[in-house]
Amino acid sequence: MDDQLKNIAEQAKIDLKECLNQNDILNIRAKYLGKKSLVNSLYSQLRNLPEEERPSFGKKVNELRNELERMIDEKEKELKLQIVNAYDSVQANDLTLPGVYFPPGSLHPLTIIRRKMEDIFISLGFQIAEGPDIEDEYHNFDALNTPEDHPSRNLADTFYLDNGYLLRTQTSTVQVRTMESYPPPIYIISPGRCYRNDKPDPSHSPVFHQVEGLVVDKGISMADLKDTLQFFAKAMFGPEVKSRIRPHFFPFTEPSAEMDISCVSCQGKGCRICKNSGWLELAGAGMVDPSVLEMMGIDDQIYNGYAFGIGIERIAMLKYNIPDMRILYENDVRMLRQFSRELI
Question: Looking at the whole model, is its pTM more than 0.85?
Fold first, then answer.
């Protein structure tokens, strides 16, 4: 029996010398210490020994197990140390090799356009205001003179949450909160995400971005609104861009208007993008309805103002000739890489 124990120990030493990696260590551990290992097979031989020899033999088997565990653990540590030293050696050599190249990142086109829009309006004296994406019906609809039977309040158009809350359908809610908190004069823009229950298509998305503006001061006229939007259009698309104002309807402005710009693709001559009209819709706008000012506690006999809303995706698609809004959300690196050198 003693010879058998000695042979197992000697064979283990030979196997450990030939061990080259962690996988070999696992195999040796299973061979000598596992459930069906050589050491465990020795325990099964105890029943065949005379009763007086069993304690002595069992003690020797336990000593062999402990010795094998020590040898295997030491070999494992030795292999790990070799790996670390080899890695350090590789790191220390060839310092003349070129470094690892990481291609430059870039801002998303929507971020680029948003920052450009902010810079333009800040240059006109506007301040940036922000508000929550989750709103109540009062700030999203009631305070903006939107009646209960208006289509935008329908469940099919708005994402409603519990307890009368909803995902804001426009950043006009920030205008309301600003008028509640600060007295005139007010000159703000409110950029941010909006949410509407639209099916994604080339021109619609359930999540989109807007920049809405609000001015409340003394002696504000429609001419001020037109000049502001014209300045924005020329700053964004170039001095050759023309603009026009045409009548429209919004619940919270009176009178209301839509602003169009000459097609940035065909310069107003008529093409597929502008549907041969020569004009592209840019923004919804109008003079703030006196009832909205009155609801906010602002004297409409002293103050008046204008408001406008511009879609960031709309500007990005026109600026970069992107035919489908969904491309902006796919995060295709081939598309995003084009903006790596875009100046902010």
Answer: no
